[in-house]
From TrEMBL, chains A, B, C, D:
Residues of the active site: 227
Binding site for FAD: 86, 109-111, 117, 216-218, 222
Record family assignment: Belongs to the thymidylate synthase ThyX family.
Protein name (Swiss-Prot/TrEMBL): Flavin-dependent thymidylate synthase
Described function: Catalyzes the reductive methylation of 2'-deoxyuridine-5'-monophosphate (dUMP) to 2'-deoxythymidine-5'-monophosphate (dTMP) while utilizing 5,10-methylenetetrahydrofolate (mTHF) as the methyl donor, and NADPH and FADH(2) as the reductant.
Amino-acid positions noted as binding dUMP in the UniProt annotation, renumbered to this chain: 106-109, 117-121, 200, 227
GO BP terms, alphabetized: dTMP biosynthetic process; dTTP biosynthetic process; methylation
Name of the coding gene: thyX
Organism name: Phyllobacterium sophorae
Enzyme class: transferase
Domain of life: Bacteria
Length: 307, 307, 307, 307
């Protein structure tokens, strides 16, 4: 899953001593590029704190070493269960991400983060664009207005060809507008190209951009809850799933509590909770009495049967 | 500058009574679409507060009518001058904006705002794309790595043609991927199109999107300071300039103070201020003694000569 | 519940016409002071938007009048149920609050709000301090380390006397440090008092302060979920309960959805959900098999029995 | 300036290896308590990044080692000068602070930070309160409505006595309400004390609290610009000044740029800048022609004379 590459730039050549908290799990991954989609990646650039940082903030005046790990685990589960979120803000992570622009447009909606993005006003974007695997090409979902079907398209050759050709053409137009060759060399044809900030408008949304993204653990978990969800678009979910693995390496106790109390938890509305409780004592509430909408009823009945 | 259109939808047909503060200047503009660029617009959808709301918050326990307008003006100038920014957070505005995607990507970097954007996962985007006026087509700036020259391109016909043809083609590819006609009708050709969330990746960055954007007056002024600046890209500046006019109608006292103490103000570094003061008493500090970089020195000397 | 008072200052004397959305329910309350605790209050100063503003943002390009109220209700419930929170950011409220300093210290932890507080550096604080009703004086809770018992103290006279005497004394010390009489007049005794910013440190945390507080509907609901909760300290809950009533008047559809999907909802951890589902099919998971802590198990069993 | 104490708890006993950026200057200070006021302190608990982190984010795709330090310095000064603030968000610091409650109330107004405070609902506060040095006791300022005179009070004995006696009494009342001895032992007198969350309301605002506070470098500099300013109340300025020293150790290049372009910089309004430029060419604008208020004119003339 992890590959070495240029971005490491010797960053893993020497270890430096520090008095700070160290996450041994995350140190293993630090600076390594983790591939996502066809040309994207995630690379952890820096971090601050670990599970103990969460515990330490919750205890405030307690020193790090004064409690056993078993108690740390219990405290973290308590905090997660009761949505005491502020201690989870006390750990921080910074990643370098390469991602298609249409994914970046979803990602940036998470506002409580710091971002520095590659500037296409300042530099020329590389010729790298996203084309889905055939397995991820699917028709519009019949019952989800903002998603795709699970089963891939039977006939996908024409789609893949079209996406590739159009992206090639889009980049060729970009070069023509800049009046440069694909290698970025100015073409001597008597023409003057337009500014980079203008030419970029010709690129399509599947071209890759990259950025540094920094957020705290609490906001990272919010991101993961929304973006590792099956309703999230596959392309951003691919990043969220790698980030889940990174989170597990970084803060294993927090990750376990997150799975138990957030990712795997079920929230029942006031009316749905009444239906469940009545079933348990054998006097079932009917759909008509329930106050649930048809869709809520169907989803609840299906969830109750789910293994 | 203002045109009626569909979005008004009868919203200006009836006036309702309210006990709230009312900005007469902004009521005139409410719901009207103000054109920007070739297909974009700004439309004020709602607002809360006026100049008096700023004053009221600054005085906290003072009622609205207890002071004269002349004192309100002085207080607003005092607050702006000393960067006492919290009272300016007490007024709020909500606008509906139609804008090219590459402009939306710059705009969204202002994080302290609320946004609801048209979803291309849920609906098909219209065939509307931005092509600059010939007057705004320019070469890469020679001395600003992230801008364009002031003078427009002499030879621009090929650029305009290329941008139009490529956008047409980009939209045709989008339709083909969805397997729909330009009117959005499914084409009966035996093919199954891909989901909207996938097809959109073929669109270029000059296609228009739209959103509701809501922010407070303090953050609006920050936006304007950065985006109405000559260094901002022309296309977002076009929106910022309309917003400046809207701000003037809404909160005229705040607008005047903003021009005097922010937009038109000059900040001198510690070293530059020493140079200016020494010149005033006739014993000039030389470039070598100044501690300024070459660029800072040139800019200071030019600013001092500027009429 | 509502009383007229000085702060209204004629603000309800005249109605002005507006093209904006108007909440008839909230207009009735606007500017009126709603008493809380012994000397506190909440007063709605301004607002922006209503239930329709939430719907409008969710639909973005749809006009206000195009859908029926029944569909608005369904959409708002859908948004609330699925935690699509951004449309709820599109409505805004501003309130004037008078509250004890120790309550203000809890309240201010909600960061996504705008605040202008009465400045005790600038002005002298009034002699107003909070003393609980006898009904709200209780011993430290035996099973909640950060709460009090439900039953009030049997013997409370000494407590009430102590609190009153100490607050009187605290204010007398404040006056002495300022070298002013209780009416704020300088005392001619040859002494020079200390600055207001210093003297205030002698006041106790039950003295009242006041502020303007402005937030959007989404963040207001977050505030209410935490502060109208039975685990919140009674004194801040008293404010949250008034705010719940205000919210119901302002955005009745959102309020109903909030009760159904947030306030009255139940969240079960992954393990607890397994226990419930196994009970429904008659093959109960025991405590030992459940993976729940003793406390979680007890709470779940008690919740299932709860009528 | 630095003293060892209990909070270190062996945290400086062993160095661990890391692949992260390390600030040698800040490692020296890590975990050590730096005294502030009579009983307060600042203790750096953790940090992320250094000057190079700022540079790295600005360059995005450039690796750490590729540029010389001289170029880093130039880039940081460029970013600071032009208020390109996002790269400064890429470094983070976490401190443990002990501070009087009235200082905490000012500090918390900086919203873009994470905070975990000692809970007086959960635990009993120690008997530690702030009493100013005689040198910092001063009368209300004659020309600054929210400050104190520079010269200390001649007659201060009665003030110091009053503050001490009142704080002692305040804490005795707190103990009485809890029905505990000064050592926190329950007193066997037949009385039942009230809950901690209630008893705390009797404490005065000069009692010490403590918290973990975490923020990024950009927001730290904003805090310092406001709170290290001569107009800030002395008691919070005392903390800001220690934080300035910490910042210099942590990110020396950023610190220097901050002094040059922010702390030591001068901002002139549009009108004031015209006055200065006209003086430089020998044709002075008079006060009447200037558009400045009397106070602005006086301050400008005095600034120009200032050595």
């Amino acid at each position: 899953m992890v590959q070495e590459n240029d971005f490491e730039n010797g960053l893993r050549d020497d270890l430096k001593p520090t008095y700070r908290a160290v996450s041994i799990g995350l140190e293993e991954l630090l600076h390594k590029t983790i591939p996502v989609l066809d040309h994207g990646f995630i690379r952890v650039v820096d971090y601050m704190g670990d599970d103990a940082a969460v515990v330490q903030a919750a205890r405030v005046s307690y020193g790090r070493g004064t409690k056993k790990v078993s108690e740390d685990r219990g405290l973290i589960r308590y905090l997660m269960r009761h949505s005491h979120t502020t201690p989870f803000e006390m750990a921080e992570i910074k990643i370098h991400v390469k991602l298609p622009i249409f994914v970046a447009r979803q990602w940036i909606r998470h506002r409580t983060a710091s971002v520095n993005e590659y500037s296409a006003r300042y530099s020329i974007l590389d010729k790298e664009f996203y084309v889905p695997d055939a397995a991820n090409l699917a028709a519009q979902s019949a019952n989800n207005k903002q998603g795709r079907e699970d089963a891939p398209l039977a006939d996908n050759g024409w789609v893949l060809n079209l996406l590739r050709e159009e992206a090639e053409r889009s980049y060729a137009g970009y070069n023509a507008l800049l009046n440069v060759s694909e290698e970025g060399m100015v073409i001597d044809n008597g023409r003057v190209g337009i500014a980079r900030e203008l030419a970029r408008m010709n690129l399509s949304l599947n071209f890759y951009t990259q950025w540094y993204w920094k957020t705290n653990l609490h906001n990272l978990l919010n991101f993961l809850r929304l973006r590792a969800d099956p309703h999230a678009q596959y392309e951003i979910r691919a990043y969220a799933e790698r980030l889940l693995e990174i989170t597990e390496k970084w803060v294993p106790l927090t990750y376990d509590a997150f799975k138990e109390y957030k990712l795997g938890a079920v929230t029942l509305s006031a009316s749905a909770w009444k239906v469940v409780k009545s079933q348990l004592v054998g006097k079932s509430i009917s759909f008509d009495e329930s106050g649930l909408s048809q869709r809520e009823w169907t989803e609840l009945m299906s969830a109750l049967k789910d293994e």
